[in-house]
Design a protein that fits this description.
Bound molecules: iron/sulfur cluster, FE4-S3 cluster
Oligomer: single chain
Shape: globular
Helix content: 40-55%
Radius of gyration: 23 Å
Number of strands: 16
Largest sheet: 6 strands, parallel
Distance between the termini: 48 Å
Length: about 550
């Protein structure tokens, strides 16, 4: 195996003998095989000569490609048997297209045995792309596509689709086997950022199904009933579970990225949605044992569970873990959560982690409703700077940097955040500026679009360009959705983004040089030095 798609990759070079995330060598090889054949589907779809007999309706195939690629994102699926099923289905979809003369191996490759997949890893994984710049740029593009598939799939389950986005996913996958110059590959990477902005906008409109978020105080204590903990990013799963648990004597709690649900009016209607339990995904092993009840993983991040709560893990959607109960989607889009509800009834109620309240819900609508007040504070010099600290959390000790950075900010600085990165500073009690919370949390990484809208609207109201705002970006990344969000920001013309704690390992020296020269991308260093670089004065 060779995998370097996340920030915790071994020695910041690549995982080669099992993943730091817990992904086994064999599962990693299966993921490579699935990605390889998905690129084969894309190549055959895009390069058919005019008049070729191609499948008439590919909507089921499109949904499948998006789900399968999403499943290979970090901490989504650790179950080899699920990838075996994805692989077989991918081959069937690919083979429904006519062969093309001179097509790449991915268009005809069929493994004869499990060993074929494991042994042939070197021939189908990303290391098979020999040129380091080509590999670097395609890796960046592939990681962005994984993030795109995650966001697109959330929008799709809520009924929002866009064929232009799906076409770009195929275009990107097929580019793996095409001849492109450095400049053309770099342009494709930038195009993924542009399409990424469209995906985030689509998801933003899809999430409106649950009402526009309001700035909300979320209870982090526990009730007396047994509970089900829902983690991941899929609001529809949470909603369906809440409907099915009504009146059953079972409470529901959000975890991690699900915190934002409490700010949507549709979720506020459920009295048995008690509150948020625990902090970011990185603390699952410490926090989940005391929850006592079952835990439903709707998407990433799943940390391979120890025996203490292994038997209480349920998965759905793209998520998988060996021997965990998987709750499938029915043809009409509904899911039957009776097994997890039955499990909860036999469990003790959760034990309090005593975390105190959290504030969330500062999406673009909620913040723009406060715009006159915010603008007045800016004009009166009460707010001197905004810093976007969105992104992911992770396990490494050096992420304490983000807590220290937030603590060291002068009291006239507002943090705009989204994603699980916020758990590094959303319990610090950073207070408010004349009633405006100093940590404005738009919600999930899925809601990063809000931060862009807020920046654009602030600039408009102040009659300046976004680049002229007292606004800096200090982004924490971990998995591939953060790569996509980073590229979205670049595509929107945002310069001098600071990113950490480590730069993506897939960047070749030439690609890094391009990002530094053209966009001023910079790695983070120490808190005082970075404050200075970002123009934040005390
Ligand atoms: Fe390693 Fe990250 Fe890949 Fe897991 S997802 S195998 S930790 S690079
Ligand atoms: Fe977090 Fe996994 Fe990326 Fe959605 S839950 S931001 S890491």
């Amino acid at each position: 195996m060779f995998c370097q798609q996340c920030e915790e990759t071994a020695r910041n070079l690549g995982c080669t003998a099992g993943g730091v995330c817990g992904k086994s060598n064999d599962t990693a090889c299966y993921q490579d095989a699935v990605n390889f054949v998905l690129s084969g589907i894309a190549y055959r779809r895009i390069h058919q000569p005019k008049g070729a007999k191609i499948p008439a309706n590919t909507s089921a195939q499109d949904t499948f490609v998006v789900e399968a690629l999403f499943a290979t994102l970090t901490n989504v699926n650790f179950d080899e048997s699920r990838f075996d099923a994805y692989l077989k289905k991918a081959i069937a979809y690919r083979d429904a297209y006519p062969q093309i003369p001179g097509e790449p191996k991915a268009c005809s490759w069929v493994p004869k045995s499990r060993e074929d997949i494991i042994i042939l890893d070197g021939g189908i994984g990303l290391l098979s792309i020999e040129d380091p710049n080509e590999r670097s740029l395609f890796s960046l593009l592939l990681f962005a596509l994984k993030g795109m598939c995650a966001y697109y799939s959330h929008a799709e389950v809520l009924g929002k689709t866009d064929p232009a986005i799906v076409n770009f996913i195929y275009k990107g996958l097929a580019s793996r086997f095409e001849k492109h110059s450095f400049g053309e590959r770099a342009a494709l990477v930038m195009e993924s950022g542009k399409v990424g902005a469209q995906v985030l906008a689509l998801l933003d409109s899809a999430n409106k199904r649950y009402g526009v978020t309001e700035i909300t105080n979320v209870n982090c204590g526990v009730g007396k009933n047994p509970g089900i903990l829902v983690t991941g990013h899929d609001l529809k799963d949470l909603y369906m579970l809440l409907r099915q648990t009504e009146g059953k004597g079972v409470d529901v709690y959000t975890h991690g990225e699900m915190l934002i649900a409490h700010a949507h009016p549709c979720f506020k209607k459920f009295p048995h949605l008690i509150g948020n339990y625990g902090t970011s995904w990185a603390n699952q092993k410490a926090e989940f044992p005391s929850f006592n009840g079952p835990i439903l993983f709707t998407t990433n991040c799943l940390v391979p569970p120890p025996d203490t709560y292994k038997g209480r893990i349920y998965t759905t959607g793209s998520v998988g873990f060996p021997n965990a109960v998987h709750i499938p989607e029915k043809p009409d889009g509904s899911k039957d959560f009776s097994s997890i509800i039955a499990c909860a009834k036999k469990c003790d109620p959760p034990k309090d982690l005593e975390c105190g309240d959290l504030v969330t819900g500062a999406g673009h609508d909620a913040v723009l409703a406060l715009a006159p007040k915010v603008l007045d504070l800016v004009k009166r010099g009460k707010i001197k700077h905004f810093v976007v600290m969105a992104g992911c959390d992770g396990r490494h000790k050096e992420r304490a940097y983000y807590t220290e950075f937030a603590k060291a900010l002068p009291k006239d600085v507002i943090i705009l955040t989204a994603g699980c990165a916020k758990y590094r500073y959303n319990r610090l009690g950073l207070g408010d500026i004349e009633g405006i919370p100093r940590v404005l949390d738009a919600g999930q990484c899925n809601d990063s679009y809000s931060l862009v809208v807020i920046a654009q609207e602030l600039a408009k109201a102040l009659g300046v360009e976004v680049g002229e705002l007292p606004l800096s970006f200090n982004i924490a990344w971990y998995e591939q959705k953060a790569i996509l969000v980073f590229l979205v920001l670049l595509a929107l013309g945002i310069k001098n983004i600071m990113i950490g704690p480590n730069l993506p390992a897939c960047l070749s020296p030439d690609v890094l040089n391009m990002l530094v020269k053209e966009f001023g991308v910079q790695p983070n260093t120490t808190v005082p030095e970075d404050m200075k670089k970002l123009g934040i004065t005390r």
